[in-house]
Amino acid sequence: MSNILRVAIQKSGRLSDDSLKLIKECGIKFNNGTGKLKSVSTNFPMEFLFLRDDDIPGYVADGVADIGIVGENVLVEKKQEVTLEKKLGFSKCRLSLAVPKGEEYKGVEYFNGKKIATSYPVILQKYLDSKSVEAEIHEISGSVEIAPGIGLADGICDIVSSGSTLFTNGLKEVEVIFPSEAVLIANKDLSEEKQRTLHKWLFRIDSVLEAANKKYILLNAPNDSIDKIISLLPGMKSPTILPLAEKGWSSLHSVINEDEFWEVIEQLKEVGAQGILVVPIEKMIR
Ligand code: PRT
Ligand code: ZN
User: Ligand 2 center to residue 242 CA distance, Å?
Assistant: First the structure.
């Protein structure tokens, strides 16, 4: 048996670009010729299979691939026995119920006795059961959003991202039933050798994901406001402080959360920080 870890990724679609980007950011090189079905890494014991996303959970469960990247919505819908190793933070979306705009909607009981079109019958049925709602599920494989308009169903259950598809089809989102993002899944019986390779990759993924949400910040400040600034910028351990040529001033280096950035900047200016530089971090190892 080969010790090369086989990774299933989507051939072309909403997961492909970000899956390839993550692999690249982890320093794993391979030749991604268009139209290829398979590719071997030149610097990591890994090879890639390019597949339709719907087939990925099954192939990983059967051991055709060792691991794979797929939307959590597809993973749960396919009911395959695999391990969810990591949520990857991209291709975020939600599976939602929607009804025609003009309908009066007061709660999920609305769907009692109604017909719902969806490509996700498993997740939808589980949700309806949990709410004790009895509805008829009409499974269709695509263009779910047109079903109410052509009289095929009363409502739909479909993936929503910006909401513009619902809007242009005269529908409104009434319940979010399953938030989803890309996940890394693995076969349940990986050899020890393959598990070691997987863990090496997971370590790299962690440093990439950690860095994505952080920024490196550099600023100049009068020495007497340094304590205040440190309390605003706890950083990884504590900020680096270097004296400036100008007497009474220092340069501070630290790390901040992307989400807290604007709020912190305001406060830093208030306590006298100047020349604030914020730069992206490529990798971060704690
Ligand atoms: O060909 P293959 O079978 O491999 O791909 P696919 O066409 O089945 O899947 P693809 O590439 O469309 O989506 C892959 C995964 O991306 C999905 O399983 C989700 O986990 C995730 N994802 C993220 C989305 C969306 N965002 C999304 N917006 N999947 C689908 N959509 C569709 C949705 O079905 C609806 O038609 O986009 C429309 C809604 O988008 P908004 O922005 O108008 O709300
Ligand atoms: Zn698909």
Answer: 53
CATH 3.40.190.10 residue ranges of the chain are 5-89+182-211, 93-180
Q: What spacing in Å lies between the alpha carbon of 19 and ligand 2's midpoint?
A: 15
Residue 58 confidence class, pLDDT cut points 50, 70, 90: very high
Summarised one tens digit per residue, pLDDT across range 157-214 is 999 999 999 999 999 999 999 999 999 999 999 999 999 999 999 999 999 998 988 9
pTM of the entire predicted model: 0.90
**What amino acid is encoded at 95 in this protein?**
L
The matching CATH number, chosen from 3.40.190.10, 3.90.1150.10, 3.40.50.1000, 3.30.420.270, for 5-89+182-211 is 3.40.190.10
Q: Helices 192-212 & 16-25, crossing angle to 10 degrees?
A: 100
Architecture of the domain delimited by 93-180: 3-Layer(aba) Sandwich (3.40)
CB 15 less than 6 A from any atom of ligand 1: yes
19 lines ligand 1 (CB under 6 A): no
Going by C-alpha positions, the residue among 50, 64, 44 that lies closest to residue 199 is 44
